[in-house]
Amino acid sequence: MQIYVDVNACRSGNGSKLSPFKTINEAARIAMPGDEVLVAPGVYREYINPKNAGREDARIVYRSIEPLGAVITGAEIADDWTLVEGTTYVTRVHNSIFGAYNPYIQEVEGDWYFADNHMHTGSVYVNDRMFYEAATLEECIKGERFEGSWEPEFSIYKWYCEQDKEKNETVIYANFQDLDPAKNKVEIAVRRNCFMPTEKYIGYITLSGFNVCKAATTWAPPAAYQDGMIGAHWSKGWIIEDCDISGSKCCGISFGNYSQENNDNFFFHNHVKSPTQMERDAVCRAQYDGWTKETVGSHIVRRCHIHHCEQTGIVGRMGCVFSTIEDCHIHHINCMQQLGGAEIAGIKFHAAIDVTFRRNHIHHTWMGIWTDWEAQGTRITGNLLHDNQPPAHIKLKPDNFNQDLFVEVGHGPILIDNNILLSECALRIPTEGVAMVHNLVCGSYTMVGWGVDSVINGQREPRYTPYHIPHRTEVAGFMTILHGDNRFYNNIFTQRFPVPDDFLEGWDMSRNANNFEVGTHVWNEYPVYEDWIELFDLGKRRPDMGKLATGHFGHLPVWIDGNAYFAGAQAFDKEKNKLVSADEVKIELCCDGDKCILKTNAYDLIKDFKVTQIDSDVLGKAFEPDERYENPDGTPITLNEDYAGNKRGLNIVPGPFAACNPGNEAGEYVVFNKLAIE
Question: Which sign does the torsion angle of CA 533, 537, 539, 542 carry?
């Protein structure tokens, strides 16, 4: 059945083409498996709470008839402003408009939120841009630049709120600077979500072609209920496609955790158990509650434009398993720099089991893709990442957490192949079981051998994390991170960014967990397999258990071969087949509005250096889960196609492009075609 919705209808009807509903939520209350909800262009200021699930063979489809013509927003127009002082105005809103959730009382808070401020989940928007929240009315009136912002020129536009308890009103002040509130579109966020079921297991929903924007979402830590403007809420089989998603106070899309009994922001509220312990508890509780491949995950996000959200573009914990994020453009995440914590990225997934991230363009984010805990069977392939670092006016801090990729405390296997990584830091890697193959790497590796355990009262407190039955959610065991078990084949490394003057030459993990020098030399102290296996006295009937403990708790081996190093990038000292050259590599990324083109002379410099083809047999198994580097269905992977999908042929060279790329004579590569929805 087709159900019609038109916000511009003269009155709400019965959902037929001649008598459409005025709200999408009316359709969401009656839509059944196999139904299609067709939404006419217009602005839908409502919260949509799908009541019924679809089926794998009969999805419920919500479709904007005109691509991006239907706008679902959590904001309302605010047009009653009175001048207070200078360019600062005030409006008053009766609290009944907010119901049980007032975003101008509710603060952004929870586990792993570190910012020492009192930001509210509400926001003021002018012409679709989010204003900066001020801590005091005086700060709002002054309207001074916030130099910590990645866009400080816009930070002069501020708002401030307070409560008038006698009148039961929220009082909102806004400094509009050069903008006249009577002549510009001014909105305030009033709803927590835009499209997200309150109940679990509302699966097999498709959301297609909508503009979804401006909601008062809450902070989304791993051991808590995670919401977004759009959220699947612990279900299976959602497809979110061809949507423009922007203006969330915290998260754009959530495939996250449900609200677990006795463990929802437990650390924030109680403090008596560490947040890491509560994350382990969350995984085990989910096992009891039925977290399986059959019940949760397997979502798809494709061809979406996700931008200007202040925690994540897409967040997920456990509910994101077996999903695919592809062909998305994600940018300007946490650029306002008013929120701070450990859960901020373009994409932030815990338990990215058999998750694929492919052909995405991610830039100007606090970090690009962050897979935290239980990245297993994960593949990051064919993505373009750049400018995932602060702009030049912000000096990098010693504990810099900005990078293209962050793989944290997982046991693998995680395959990172055929990507273009152009930011100052390519990969933060306090983890194990990672393979990097055929990438162009212009940034450094950081947190090598660090960032896992804490030393409390002089005692090491290991961070044990789960690993799983291959291609399943069931926990197979827990182990701390030994570091190593990594593979680096056929990459191009180039020192694109200068090493800071205050960074001592020659990286030393005992001195600094950060690193600005590009290359695989950071693994020089790690054993190769032949040396590591000698530690275990294989073949002895009664080995010395104490002696073997050196191997059981020492670093795992690494496999490094076939890489090319330019412009000062440094090689692993035991790498046999490598190309090292002092030549400068030209890296120029040009985005003209329709497509992005990478210009490089790297393949002129490689010349006759050839490498071998990499496949599942070469990569082997990740150590702890004993799982092969393979596809989610268990079939082998052969890396015989490049970034653009061209075959590599017989003469294989390092990097993300095949030497025989058609139309590549000038060293130009089309690396991203912008989406039509933009």
Answer: negative
